């Protein structure tokens, strides 16, 4: 048996103790832990008696990078090929492969791994080691597996220059590229940490990235969240109340009424890292981006991959998930309606329920409260109804929507999406009332405490006030840019503008976050309908609700006056001045308005421009685009198209977010297309639209939902807080008791 030992006075975190650390974190949050960790971390080796195990395809540079990492850590370096296999077999690896063939080679290689043991070392695996399950399970017991993720095109080029023409698994009729693609599934199965490696990155740079990634993996205590209303002095006084990703997913809204944001900001990607994702699929891009935003102590990479695969694997009708389509001139549409409920909300809400179910403690039931202006409701209901049966028994959803403030098809869809753990309630008011009511319920500690004590049930939020809702939206904005590069529309680094129909500010905030993370977005264009409070604010710095009444429009998802996620952006440009944010929102609550300082307005206008669209112009845009291209825009996308036409300067491409499928707004679409016969039945309206052979076709998911019986069966509630609370208690009693 091979055994390499480097003795250390203390043992660093293993995978098992990483889970234990997370449990302790959840239960106690000791105030001194962070400081103790920093002291310990600065005085002991990064490795301890754990191994750093480098994994990746042949040509990834594992051996070279392993040597550099070992030198930096002053610890043993072991190359499985040179130091273990060839020593054991007394012949070269290539000779062994030629002697026994690929299948037997993998078995022989695995047997050697099972006899191998090391401690406190940097180990470079062979490219085929991960294909032997028992061997890899043995290695992971005392190691952190680092995946050197190099694009296949780069590996092919390197292997060609190294004159490597055969690797394990290759046979006549199977190309080298096919083998490399096939192996990816094994690499993805075993890694703890991924390090993106572009084509021209020096080994020294990759080694530093490996060390940084291992440090991050070992130290989750630095990835904490704060409230947008937390003062700087309050942060230093409340170190014992740190919140982590799992906490903010569960809690939704901060106790002080603010919104959670990462204390150290979002991760930055280098240009080379983004470029390494140009050839990647949407699911692969999502995995890479979200791994950097969610610490593995909260969700390990393997579990995150499972969640992403479940969310986007079969539930979307387009294999590209979020395709980019050329519309006309320099305008491109980012189609975000291929999910099961036909809106951009599906991108987050096919993922968030599984994230939520993983993060919450098993000892408590949870009721998820949602306020919707149209699309969120059906997306939340559909997403949570897809949970495993055991999770549905402990997680239920209650969706509040304005009874007369959504389209008939949206209402039918929300009612049709009701399941055994998911219900919709119409409220005789507008969206702003529904959203404000939920916020008040969350901050009513007497009421939430009563629910916990009396019924063993905690409340959670699935609106875009929940941080987990925003992360999947960052992915599709980044992916859209990478698609334009992949299609040779632009070279990487050239700027684009984005235009987004905006109500609650979550979608456009995700685009701003993508920009912060390194995507070359120049301007974010905020498109409003006749509820144009955001347009006025971006132009003047004055957020003024005095005298404004919500107007019902053809684009109900942006019929919003109080934009919740704007608070996160203001916190960002105010250099995380929670005291200022608190002052602004107290003034808005008490006086109905606030005004930004001049310097903050100038910062805001470096990122944002805004315009609004009338109802007439919205319908005219739908008609014009259909007449010239045969493509039907939904009403929200039409709002963005009108504003983009007015504000773009045509010096770069502009990506218009197509946030919903036109099928959801059939009466308005039929009116825009000047079709005289408009039937009242939503299903009949969709059949009528379908008869025109439109592009894209009528959404299949909507058709299936509307065919269900009982699409008028839902409860209606007065705009009264006590009535809403009564409905909540009734649901808890019926589902959990």
UniProtKB/TrEMBL annotation:
Coiled coil: none annotated. Keywords: Amino-acid biosynthesis, Pyridoxal phosphate. Residues 239-312 form the Threonine synthase N-terminal domain. The modification N6-(pyridoxal phosphate)lysine is found at residue 345. Gene3D superfamilies: 3.40.50.1100, P-loop containing nucleotide triphosphate hydrolases, Threonine synthase, N-terminal domain. The keyword Amino-acid biosynthesis applies. Pathway: Amino-acid biosynthesis. It comes from the Eukaryota. Pfam families: SKI, Thr_synth_N. Its cofactor is pyridoxal 5'-phosphate. This is THNS1 protein.
